[in-house]
Amino acid sequence: MNKYAGLIFFVLIASCAGPDKPEVREAGAYEADWESLSNHKASPQWFQDAKLGIYFHWGVYSVPAYGSEWYPRFMHLEGHDIYKHHLETYGHPSEFGYHDFVPLFKAEHFDAAEWADLFQKAGARFAGPVAEHHDGFAMWDSKATPWNAADMGPKKDITGLLAAELRKRDMKLITTFHHSKQLQRYDSIASEGHEAYQWSHFPWNLEMPTSSDDPKLQKLYGNIPEDQWLEEIWYAKLVEVIDQYQPDIIWFDYVLDKIPDEYRQKFSAYYLNEAEKLDKEVVIVRKQDDLPINYTVDDLEKSRKNVIGEEPWMTDETISKGSWCYTEDLDIKTSTDVLHVLIDIVSKNGVLLLNVSPMANGSIPDNQKQVLIDMGAWLDAYGEAIYSTRPWYTFGEGPTKEPEGHFKNHQEFLKIKYSSKDVRYTTKDDVIYATLLGWPGAGEEILLTAFAAENLPHPLEVSSVELLGSNESLGWEVREEGLSLLLPQEAPDEMAFVFSIKTR
Q: In which domain, by residue range, is 74 found?
């Protein structure tokens, strides 16, 4: 076979390190200010190596199983489809409020060991719950609020039970918080057009339980003074989860920018200092510039980058084409589509946080399970091209292009279908992995133009090429225009194909 002669191997691994920090810090060394917090390394090696995590939107909103996890808000907005459904199914929201769903959230089939087994089998290296969505119901044993899964509904410490099982399997724990939106930031004086209306999950309405003066209901619906809510609800809940479960990742949904700097800094310092005491490397994930990027990881909802990220980043994506929580008509993506999203993200220095949607009874539907099992089987066979890899000088080649990232373009991302013409690259040690997102056909020739001499930022020498999972010989040749590969007669897989390209 012809190879480039006299070329020198150059290691082409993108740097994924966050801001430098001292190797050793004294416990309690982080102060509650942006300058001190910037000393935290945003993405430790374990996070960069993990590539895949699983979480789940599951809570009281799973009981009606209609519309989306935003049911608690829209059931109060006259004219909305969810309001009409609630009226027809349960009665007027003033008579059957969101809190009346709590006893119906029984989670009788929830089995933490079974879930952890499934997440591990799927290839996830970390997992955990939506600890609290916008709705004010805590999925852990809480003293800050009576509205928690240990005392009401399931009467089980969901977070604690799952955390214990994950750690038995050497998996990291993520807890996500969406509760910055729970506070009612307006009163009857404000109209629906008022900015504060948009940043409040439950609407002020004197005819509804959301605006009750009952102290217990106020804690669920966020109808309490802001100063009290910030200290006794928003911050106290975070401290509880940190103290009780020591999560490895804390992830925040939007509206975090409405939390005063004082509290965002106080939380960050507390979490990082507690991690230092335990000698843990932890990760804080933010959205939409809600925290300084110099000590946090950036997250893109239902979207992803179309270039290699300078720093490690994350996408939160769901297994369905619609709601994040379970609904009776939930349309699930194919295993291939979800896998391709993971491969694309990893090639660009990203990590995928994949959401699943359990039923209110605590069972995960079979069609969702199958996607996870299929992905796990592929990763078990070809995971060397994913785990602990880093981006090459280019993320890939092919005709399929992603739009600009973030939620505003999530519908465009749903339309993307990769093909045999799309290739994604990763690298580890002296190996470059080229993953083909479709099978061109038996005996077909493909050309990897990323290996063309004029495209390479530095010269390299290819020493061998292997199609993982295939026992057939693979013809290959380095040409001026790139690396030519002659495919065998049989495809080793149905979803994606990995070429291991060794260099020296």
A: 34-385
